[in-house]
Design goal:
The chain is of the alpha/beta class and 424 residues long. 39% of the residues lie in helices and 14% in strands. It has 15 helices and 13 strands. The protein has an eight-stranded mixed beta sheet, with helices on both faces. The relative contact order is 0.08.
């Protein structure tokens, strides 16, 4: 393989990609965030996805100067693809990255997109931008491919090199080059998709499938709660069947499962189909924060406690366990709902960056030492710190207080008789 590789976007997805390639090849790592570049040059990754040792080992030229991309003829674009406040795809980062690449791209370059998009976005949205700013013709002067990211933040087992990589290319020849480049570092092997659109669709339905299944569990949890049945016990019983799918209820946030389905529904509606099941699942999952907050109020009242002015300790703010990522976290919606009800809410998170949380949400995270006993304790995110020290954290709720457990990590035997346990 004789390709000069560059990775554009060094976040949760791009950095692990860059480091993996950097272990085998000399590559360029580009990001518009100059602070991020300085940190990486000092072998520090604020996302905690890559260790200092691995950063030191990787042969990467970090830069925020787009002109350095001229050295590359195989450019991987791994920038975020969020949604706006109306749940519509926001391709701004992707199109801006395409513009940046287009301005410096040379002939015979292959541009491979890893960002999650709807089918058709690479060829219909990105290619025109590349052509406009490069004055080159796609399919003649340069080529494109698509290889959907499968990075799972916080997961140290399923990593970039150990997950089968779906690859696609504009032509059969380009597909072989893309497959060859990724095969040089991905030990799990590659799957060659028949077209770019097939690869794009494969990515967007991976998380849509999870979203719909979690939505089913969330709806069942709501039903069982009204019936006075413990959802966790039901799932344990059902899980004894060999083909029962092991999904659990919970908050669905982050930059993937809570976002990707909207890319597919957007495209579906564009071609005249109203996706009922997918959107129904999204509505259920998006409303879970309100469901949990209202149950916190109800359970406090059942315990004879005044809801207004009641104190609540919230453990965990990130969108998932053992990860500092605060993007699209749904825990904040519970916090905001409780504050609207007049409760005194204190939030602690052992993984999140204190400054980032303050900037995003306007309040300061509390350290473990700063938390005092409250009327209610909410285990929102099961970080290992909370799992390994449950007894200490359970002491942060008063007698006759209520413990709320979103992820089913607390057993009834672990709480005092005069306290109440509510599980999703």
């Amino acid at each position: 393989m004789k390709r000069n590789i560059a990775v554009v976007g060094l976040g949760y997805v791009g950095l692990p990609v860059a480091v993996t390639f950097g272990n085998k090849h000399k590559i360029i790592g580009f990001d518009i965030n100059e602070t991020r570049i300085k940190e990486l040059n000092n072998n520090y990754d604020r996302t905690n996805e890559v260790t200092e040792v691995k950063l030191k080992q990787a042969n990467i030229e970090y830069t925020s100067n787009a002109n350095d991309l001229k050295q590359a003829d195989f450019i991987i674009v791994a920038v975020p693809t969020p949604i706006d406040k109306h749940n519509k795809p926001d391709l701004t980062p992707l199109l801006k990255a395409s513009e940046t690449v287009g301005k410096v791209m040379t002939s015979n370059t292959i541009v491979v997109y890893e960002s999650t998009v709807y089918p058709g976005a690479t060829e219909e949205d990105c290619v025109p931008i590349l052509e406009k700013f490069s004055n080159l013709s796609c399919g003649q002067d340069f080529f494109v491919g698509y290889s959907p990211e499968r990075i799972n933040p916080g997961d140290k087992v399923h990593t970039f090199e150990t997950i089968t990589k779906v690859v696609s290319g504009q032509t059969p020849e380009v597909l072989e080059i893309v497959a060859d480049v990724y095969s040089s570092v991905v030990t799990a092997g590659v799957h060659k998709a028949s077209s770019i659109k097939v690869a794009e669709a494969a990515k967007v339905i991976e998380n849509t499938q999870r979203d719909v299944n979690i939505a089913l569990m969330n709806e069942l949890a709501i039903i069982f709660d009204k019936l006075g049945i413990d959802t966790n016990e039901v799932l344990k019983a059902s899980g004894t069947k060999w083909n029962f799918l092991n999904f659990k209820p919970g908050l669905v946030g982050g930059h993937c499962i809570g976002v990707d389905p909207y890319y597919l529904t957007h495209k579906a509606q564009e071609v005249g189909h109203h996706p009922e099941v997918i959107l129904a699942g999204r509505r259920i999952n998006d409303n879970m924060a309100k469901h949990i907050a209202s149950n916190i109020i109800k359970e406090l009242l059942k315990q004879g406690l005044e809801a207004q002015g009641a104190s609540v300790n919230v453990l965990g703010l990130t969108f998932k366990e053992n990860c500092p990522d605060l993007r699209n976290t749904k825990v904040i919606h519970i916090v905001e709902e409780l504050k609207d009800y007049g409760l005194n809410v204190k939030v602690s998170d052992v993984e999140a960056d204190v400054k980032e949380a303050k900037k995003l949400f306007g309040f300061s995270l509390q350290s473990k030492k700063e938390l005092t006993k409250a009327d209610a304790l909410l285990f929102a995110v099961p970080h290992n710190e909370y799992l390994n020290n449950k007894k200490e954290y359970l002491n942060l709720v008063k007698d006759k207080g209520v413990i709320f457990d979103i992820k089913g990590i607390i057993n009834k035997s672990e709480i005092d008789d005069n306290q109440k346990l509510w599980r999703l």
